[in-house]
C-alpha cells in the first residue's frame, strides 16, 4: 500500500467479510466502463466536480493506468465514501481531489476553480485555506498538546491570533475532547488522537475534508465514535467529507458510496 502521507509530502514540496466480500468480489468481476455521476441532491452546485479524470504513471518504460475515467460530484455538507480493494486507485483519486496531484486527462473543479490547469503553488494556496486532510496514522505532532496541535493548523492558515482560543476550544469541544485539551498524543487513545486530528483538520473552517482510511487503525467501538463525530462535523460546520475505507460496517453513515474497481466506479 502506498502511503498517502508519503506521496502527499512529495507532491507538496511547496497533507471486508463473508457475504459482503463475496458480493464485492462478484461485482469486481464485471466492472462497468463508467457509471452515471451522482444526481444533484441540493439546490447548490457541486463543491467539487471530477470529470472524465484519468491518471497514469510512468514506471520505467511502462505506463501504468491507475484511474480510467472517473466522474464524481461532491456537494456541500455531504459525506461520501470511496470503497475499493487495495490498489484500486482510491488514494490516487483523493490526491487529485485535494489538489496534491493533477490528472493526466480530464478536469477537476473545486469551487469552480480549475485544479487541472493550475500549478502547485496556486493549488497550495487554496488547499491551505479551504481543504483539510485526515490520515490513517493521525499525523499529530508528538510533543504538542491537543490544543497546540489544533493551534498549528490555524497558524498555517494565517488565521488571526485573536481568533485562536475560541476556535480551538470549540473544535475540541465538537469532537468531545474539552477535558483532554492539554494532553499530548501519547497520553490519548487511538480514537482520541483521531478526534484531535479531526479538530485540527476543521479548525481553519475548510469547505472540504479528505480522509484516507481514517478508521483503519481503530477498533469497531472507536470507529463508530469517529463516524458519529464525522456526521456531527459535517452538519455543524457545513463541511463536505470524502473518505476512503475498506470497512463495510460503516457504509450506512454515508450519503453516497462510490465503489471503485481497477480505476473505474462500478454500480453498488
Ligand atoms: N506515484 C506512483 N507511481 C507509480 N504507481 C503508482 C503511483 N501512485 C500510485 N500508483 C499505483 O496506482 C495503483 C493504485 O494505488 P492507490 O494507492 O491509489 O490505491 P488504493 O486504492 O488507495 O489502495 P489502498 O487501499 O491499499 O491504499 C497501485 O497499483 C499503485 O502502485
UniProtKB/TrEMBL annotation:
<dbReference type="InterPro" id="IPR015854">
    <property type="entry name" value="ABC_transpr_LolD-like"/>
</dbReference>
<dbReference type="InterPro" id="IPR017871">
    <property type="entry name" value="ABC_transporter-like_CS"/>
</dbReference>
<dbReference type="InterPro" id="IPR027417">
    <property type="entry name" value="P-loop_NTPase"/>
</dbReference>
<dbReference type="Pfam" id="PF00005">
    <property type="entry name" value="ABC_tran"/>
</dbReference>
<dbReference type="GO" id="GO:0016887">
    <property type="term" value="F:ATP hydrolysis activity"/>
</dbReference>
<feature type="domain" description="ABC transporter">
    <location>
        <begin position="48"/>
        <end position="266"/>
    </location>
</feature>
<feature type="region of interest" description="Disordered">
    <location>
        <begin position="1"/>
        <end position="25"/>
    </location>
</feature>
<keyword id="KW-0813">Transport</keyword>
<dbReference type="GO" id="GO:0005886">
    <property type="term" value="C:plasma membrane"/>
</dbReference>
<dbReference type="InterPro" id="IPR003439">
    <property type="entry name" value="ABC_transporter-like_ATP-bd"/>
</dbReference>
<dbReference type="GO" id="GO:0022857">
    <property type="term" value="F:transmembrane transporter activity"/>
</dbReference>
<keyword id="KW-0547">Nucleotide-binding</keyword>
<keyword id="KW-0067">ATP-binding</keyword>
<dbReference type="GO" id="GO:0098796">
    <property type="term" value="C:membrane protein complex"/>
</dbReference>
<protein>
    <submittedName>
        <fullName>Putative ABC transport system ATP-binding protein</fullName>
    </submittedName>
</protein>
<feature type="compositionally biased region" description="Basic and acidic residues">
    <location>
        <begin position="9"/>
        <end position="25"/>
    </location>
</feature>
<dbReference type="GO" id="GO:0005524">
    <property type="term" value="F:ATP binding"/>
</dbReference>
<dbReference type="InterPro" id="IPR003593">
    <property type="entry name" value="AAA+_ATPase"/>
</dbReference>
<dbReference type="InterPro" id="IPR017911">
    <property type="entry name" value="MacB-like_ATP-bd"/>
</dbReference>
Amino acid at each position: 500500500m502506498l502511503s498517502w502521507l508519503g506521496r502527499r509530502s512529495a507532491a507538496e514540496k511547496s497533507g471486508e467479510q463473508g457475504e459482503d466480500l463475496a458480493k464485492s468480489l462478484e461485482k469486481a468481476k464485471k466492472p462497468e466502463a463508467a457509471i452515471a455521476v451522482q444526481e444533484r441532491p441540493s439546490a447548490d452546485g457541486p463543491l467539487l466536480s471530477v470529470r472524465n479524470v484519468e491518471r497514469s504513471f510512468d514506471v520505467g518504460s511502462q505506463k501504468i493506468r491507475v484511474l480510467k475515467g472517473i466522474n464524481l460530484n461532491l456537494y456541500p455538507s455531504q459525506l461520501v465514501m470511496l470503497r475499493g480493494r487495495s490498489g484500486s486507485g482510491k488514494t490516487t483519486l483523493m490526491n487529485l481531489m485535494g489538489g496534491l496531484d493533477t490528472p493526466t486527462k480530464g478536469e477537476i473543479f473545486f469551487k469552480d476553480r480549475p485544479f487541472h490547469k493550475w500549478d502547485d503553488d496556486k493549488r497550495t494556496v487554496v488547499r491551505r485555506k479551504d481543504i483539510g486532510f485526515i490520515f490513517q496514522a493521525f499525523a499529530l505532532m508528538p510533543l504538542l498538546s491537543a490544543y497546540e496541535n489544533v493551534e498549528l493548523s490555524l497558524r498555517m492558515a494565517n488565521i488571526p491570533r485573536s481568533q485562536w482560543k475560541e476556535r480551538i476550544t470549540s473544535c475540541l469541544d465538537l469532537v468531545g475532547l474539552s477535558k483532554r485539551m492539554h494532553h499530548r498524543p501519547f497520553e490519548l487513545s487511538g480514537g482520541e488522537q483521531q478526534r484531535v486530528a479531526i479538530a485540527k483538520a476543521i479548525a481553519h473552517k475548510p469547505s472540504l475534508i479528505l480522509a484516507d482510511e481514517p478508521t483503519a487503525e481503530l477498533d469497531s467501538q472507536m470507529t463508530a465514535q469517529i463516524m458519529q463525530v464525522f456526521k456531527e462535523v459535517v452538519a455543524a460546520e457545513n463541511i463536505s467529507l470524502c473518505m476512503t475505507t475498506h470497512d463495510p460496517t460503516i457504509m450506512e453513515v454515508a450519503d453516497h458510496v462510490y465503489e471503485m474497481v481497477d480505476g473505474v466506479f462500478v454500480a453498488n
